[in-house]
Amino acid sequence: MSKMAIITGASQGLGLAFAEHLSQSGYTTVLIARTPSTVEKAAASIREKGGNAVSYAVDITDEREMTRLAEDIQKRYGTISILINNAGILHTETLENMPAEEIRYDLDVSLFGPVLTTKLFSPMIETGGKILFISSGFGLMGPAGYSVYSAAKGGMINFAESVKRELHKRKIGVYVAVPSDIDTPGFQMELAGLPEWMKVSQARGKPQPADKVAGRIMSRCSGNRFLIFSDPGVRMLHVVNHLVPGRIRDLILNAMFPRP
Ligand SMILES: NC(=O)c1ccc[n+]([C@@H]2O[C@H](COP(=O)([O-])OP(=O)(O)OC[C@H]3O[C@@H](n4cnc5c(N)ncnc54)[C@H](OP(=O)(O)O)[C@@H]3O)[C@@H](O)[C@H]2O)c1
Fold it and tell me: Is the pTM of the predicted complex or chain greater than 0.85?
């Protein structure tokens, strides 16, 4: 049987790009997203190109549905080789303008979901397998307007580090990608929903194509690496965080990212 890859948020954007990339490398891919029609369409598009793909319409925040899914995958396939915690959502807004319900759901999808998915699926990962988390450059620092997203993506990095230590005896590689802007439906929605004060200056270049980013991340997902940088801007952010004294770091980041 071919190697198995589980990818959350795989009906479009970066998740679908990972599924396509892995299916071209011979993996059987399990695509997870909430909307049945779009996730099945994505899996069908992979099968049409000769790949192996199955779809599951599941909300990663739903413990009961996710437990049932994990049991089903275990029964059908036994072990998995790679889990990609990709699903995440973002609402750009100041904290005071975010309803508590939206805050809770965003944290549920972007932090609790990956934690739950990892808890349920990591026991099935074969020795030498991998877990890849998709965080963000905004998991390394907190720009205004991204407080909840940054909390989730930063929390994800520390969570992944703990999991890496907990799983070391099983030789499971744990990696966190910290990408910058990627041309996906989610990114287009983010741009469309930016509050006025954020439109003034954007420290952003052209978004990268999702297939290029997925390929770059997968090619770096090996050995003792932990953080995976898919573009030089985020690597620079990481260097600023670690090497530049606090006051100067503040000046740099305030010049790069707008404040209300
Ligand atoms: N695009 C960027 O510029 C960028 C930059 C840095 C990091 N990232 C991160 O990369 C990841 C993918 O981003 P993207 O831009 O490709 O996103 P996207 O285009 O918005 O796609 C999100 C995917 O996640 C699924 N999803 C959302 N909520 C879910 C839930 N509760 N349960 C299961 N599936 C769910 C969506 O399908 P359904 O709606 O049908 O569930 C969809 O398949 C995210 O974690 C994002 O934070 C993106």
Answer: yes
Beta strands in the chain, from DSSP E residues, in sequence order? 4-8, 28-33, 52-57, 80-85, 125-134, 173-177, 182-183, 208-209, 227-228
Q: Extract the runs of DSSP E, i.e. beta strands, from 140-246.
A: 173-177, 182-183, 208-209, 227-228
pLDDT per position as a tens digit, 146-172: 999 999 999 999 999 999 999 999 999
**Rounded CA gap, 118 and 166, in Å?**
12
Length of the chain: 260
CB 87 less than 6 A from any atom of ligand 1? yes
Distance 91 CA to ligand 1 centre (A): 12
Locate 105 and state its tokens. 């759901």
Structure confidence by residue, pLDDT tens digits, 123-142: 999 999 999 999 999 999 99
pLDDT, mean of residues 194-200? 86
CA-CA distance, 118 to 62, in Å (whole number)?
A: 14
What single-letter DSSP state applies at residue 169?
Answer: G
How big is the chain by its Cα radius of gyration, in Å? 18
Using left for φ > 0, alpha for ψ between -120 and 50, and beta otherwise, residue 126 falls in: beta
Q: Residue 61 belongs to what H/E stretch?
A: none
Q: What is the pLDDT of residue 202?
A: 56
Q: Is the shortest distance between the CB of 61 and ligand 1 below 6 Å?
A: yes
CA of 8 to the centre of ligand 1 (A): 8
Residue 201 has pLDDT above 80, yes or no: no
